[in-house]
Amino acid sequence: MTSPTKPLYLLLATQFLVTFSLMVLIPVLPLYLEQLGKQQAVSGFYSALALSAPAVGGLLSAPVVGMLGDRYRYKNIFIAALVLFVLSLLGMAWFQSISLFIGARFLLGLSGIGVVLTLFFSRANIAPQGHQLGMQQQAISLACLLGPLVGGYSLQTIGMNMVLTVTAAVTVSCLLALMWLLDKDILQPQGTEAGSKSTDKSQFSTPIWGWLLAGAFSQAGAFALVVGFALYMTQMWPSPNVASQIGLIHALAWCGTFALAGFWGRRNTRGFGAQSFAFGALGCGLAVVLIDFVSSLWFIAILRIIQGGFFAAQSQSLFLQISTLSPANQQGQALGYAKSAQVSGQLIGPFAAAFCFSHFGASSVLWLTAGLFIAAAILVSFLLSVQQVNLKVKTQ
């Protein structure tokens, strides 16, 4: 049997590449679309469509990919998803039509590679689940930090098509290595036989649906902050360098996420996943709302780093709890729904932020974001209190 650390590091590298490919275009997407449009102005509709296409594709495919994970070996699903992912990268790199480029981004989300990787990190027998999910969050955070930096530099130098092509080539290398290294023991789902088909018709318990709603609230808050923070800074802290300031502060927030992802993972391994999610969501909300009361950019940067550190608890704690609460032969489907819930939040958050900004001003965006995070914390705290009551009833 191969050493489990090798496939773990390759899976982390693959997670980095998947997230990197999404983030590398984020800061320069309108400019890249103008290049595809032969330097003609591209409407905001096409930019919004290109930005949301992976999320829409992922929203559609996540439950299906999750159900497939309950019925077939992860390795086979992983290979299929990664092949589609590579094809989408090559399409984004070399298609010269805006419509085809958007189609390639839609295929990136439709491939379901994000769900498959979450299945691996949630259920593979490589390390404790909390530790695996913590390392996954670190890989995502590092890609979110480096992707925009590389994208902004590359568009006017080596070209975005070269970056995407190299990313696809490295991904293929990871795929070939993982096809060789991944074995049945590492991929064995806990509590089931690989390849067995589900015959249990039981439905998900009520707490799982509560957790899905909490995950949607938390992710809506995160993506409302992406849009809302830029709007807030532009209006409340105007300066010739505001764009650079926003980018730097965003990068610092991801540094905080990267730094504390391992801490939350170790804490979750000790059985505190639900508490970590609630505490992290509450910390995010409080850190965001305090931004509206400080009078220095340094304090804003510090608060965003703190918010990033608390945010590191969110996704990994959500996936751990969903995996723990769901039936053994329906964990893939449950994790797929968790991904879809997060994507729903990603789509709703920015629109909610834009609405609040246009009707209630810049400060309202921060309060909206804080409210979404705090709502997630309250919901999970309620689920924990109900769980405690049920335990007391059973022991009496």
TrEMBL record:
The chain crosses the membrane at residues 7-33, 45-65, 77-96, 102-126, 138-156, 162-182, 208-233, 245-265, 277-301, 365-386. InterPro entries: MFS (IPR011701), MFS_dom (IPR020846), MFS_trans_sf (IPR036259). Residues 7-388 form the Major facilitator superfamily (MFS) profile domain. Keywords: Cell membrane, Membrane, Transmembrane, Transmembrane helix, Transport. It is found in: Cell membrane. Gene3D superfamilies: MFS general substrate transporter like domains. It is a multi-pass membrane protein. The keyword Transmembrane applies. GO terms for cellular component: plasma membrane. GO terms for molecular function: transmembrane transporter activity. The keyword Acetylation does not apply. Pfam families: MFS_1. This is Major facilitator superfamily (MFS) profile domain-containing protein. It comes from Pseudoalteromonas byunsanensis.
